[in-house]
C-alpha cells in the first residue's frame, strides 16, 4: 500500500532523514520506533505532504505522492493525527469532527460522525463542549475521530499515548486495534515501544535519520538491542 524509497529530507542544512526505505502493507499495523530527534515526526510530515523530500519517493497504492499538496494527500486516502493532537481549541467537538470531513461532499457525514461517537462514547457526551476544555485523553480521542471523518485507508498516528495516564494509553491502543479491524491500515509512531509492538505486525527502528533495524514486531520485542534501548531493560 505504502512504499517509501531512499527518502532524504532536510531542515535547512540539517539532514533529518538519510535515505530511509520502508513499506506498509494493506491492512497492517506497522510501528516506527525511535527516541526524540530520531526523525519519526519528520517521516510522517513528509508522508502527509507537509514536508518535501530532497531525494527519494513515496508511493501510495502505486502512485507517487511527491509534489502533492497536503489536502490532496487527504483526498487520496491518508490522514495524519499529529503529535500534540492539534485540535481546534475554540471549536466544539462536533465542529472539529466536521472539519475532518471538509474534503467531503457526500451524504454519509452524519453517519460517520455517529460511528466516531460509537468508537468514542465520551465524545458523544461532550459533543457541544469546546474542544480546548477537554481532558488530554478526550482531546486525543477527538484528534483520532477527526482523522477518521475523512474515511482514510491509511492512518498516520504520531505519539498517540503522549502525556496520557496508563489506563487511557491502554484504551487508545485498543481503539487503534479496533480501527484496524475495520479495514484501516495504520502507521504508528510511538515512544511507548512495548505497547506499540504489542499491537503491530511489523516495526522499524529509526535512529538519527536512518533505519538500522526492522522486522516482525515479536522479533523486535525479543531483540536485545531494542529491549535495552526502548523497553528499559539492562
What do you see in this structure?
- This protein is 38% helix and 26% strand.
- It has 234 residues and is of the alpha/beta class.
- The chain has two domains: 129 residues, 3-Layer(aba) Sandwich (Rossmann fold), CATH 3.40.50.300; 74 residues, no CATH class.
- The chain starts with a strand and ends with a helix.
- 41% of the residues are buried.
- The model has no long low-confidence stretch (mean pLDDT 91).
Fold topology:
Elements: E1 2-11, E2 14-24, E3 29-33, H1 40-47, E4 55-60, E5 63-64, H2 70-76, E6 78-81, H3 93-100, H4 109-119, H5 121-125, H6 136-148, E7 154-158, H7 166-181, E8 185-189, H8 193-199, E9 202-207, E10 210-216, H9 217-222, H10 224-230
Parallel strand pairs: 3-8, 3-9, 6-7, 7-8
Antiparallel strand pairs: 1-2, 1-4, 4-5, 9-10
Helix pairs in contact: 3-6
- Secondary-structure element series: EEEHEEHEHHHHEHEHEEHH
Assembly status? single chain
Helical percent range? Answer: 25-40%
Spans where pLDDT lies below 50 across 5 or more residues:
none
Percentage beta strand: 25-35%
Q: Find the CATH superfamily of the largest domain.
A: P-loop containing nucleotide triphosphate hydrolases
| Structural class computed from helices and strand pairing | alpha/beta
Question: What attributes characterize this protein structure?
Answer:
6-stranded mixed beta sheet, 234 residues, 26% strand, Rossmann fold
Amino acid at each position: 500500500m505504502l512504499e517509501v524509497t531512499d527518502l532524504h529530507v532536510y531542515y535547512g542544512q540539517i539532514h533529518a532523514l538519510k535515505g530511509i526505505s520502508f513499506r506498509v502493507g494493506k491492512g497492517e499495523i506497522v510501528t516506527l520506533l525511535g527516541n526524540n530527534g530520531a526523525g519519526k515526526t519528520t517521516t510522517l510530515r513528509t508522508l502527509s505532504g507537509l514536508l518535501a523530500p530532497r531525494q527519494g519517493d513515496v508511493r501510495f497504492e502505486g502512485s507517487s505522492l511527491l509534489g502533492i499538496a497536503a489536502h490532496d494527500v487527504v483526498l487520496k486516502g491518508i490522514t495524519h493525527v499529529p503529535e500534540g493532537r492539534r485540535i481546534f481549541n475554540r471549536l466544539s467537538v462536533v465542529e472539529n469532527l466536521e472539519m475532518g470531513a471538509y474534503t467531503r461532499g457526500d451524504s454519509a457525514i452524519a453517519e460517520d460522525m455517529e460511528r466516531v461517537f460509537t468508537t468514542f462514547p465520551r465524545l458523544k457526551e461532550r459533543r457541544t463542549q469546546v474542544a480546548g476544555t477537554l481532558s488530554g485523553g478526550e482531546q486525543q480521542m477527538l484528534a483520532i475521530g477527526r482523522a477518521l471523518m475523512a474515511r482514510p485507508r491509511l492512518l498516520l498516528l504520531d505519539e498517540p499515548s503522549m502525556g496520557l495516564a496508563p489506563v487511557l494509553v491502554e484504551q487508545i491502543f485498543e481503539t487503534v486495534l479496533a480501527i484496524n479491524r475495520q479495514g484501516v491500515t495504520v502507521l504508528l509512531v510511538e515512544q511507548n515501544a512495548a505497547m506499540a509492538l504489542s499491537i503491530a505486525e511489523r516495526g522499524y527502528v529509526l535512529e538519527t535519520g536512518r533505519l538500522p533495524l526492522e522486522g516482525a514486531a515479536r522479533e523486535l520485542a525479543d531483540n536485545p538491542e531494542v529491549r535495552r534501548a526502548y523497553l528499559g531493560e539492562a
